Amino acid sequence: MGISGISLWQLLIVLLIVVLIFGTKKLKGMGGDLGSAVKSFRKAMDDKDKDDDDVTPKQLDSTRVDADFDPAEKREETHDSRSG
Q: What are the boundaries of each domain within the chain?
């Protein structure tokens, strides 16, 4: 007994039917396409991990919001310029 009740003979029959429908050249091409897709996906994931490791604390500080900024002060400045 194979995977979840499927026997080896049943798997071989399904494989034979797939080969007859698509042909060996088409299956080889699909396998190559799938392999190159997996390869490029892995490369993209490795590049992303490398980019994440290269972030320095200085770069993180530049994206932080200024803690001394008070929106009320900005509104008062704008309000004063309109009234004067």
A: 23-55
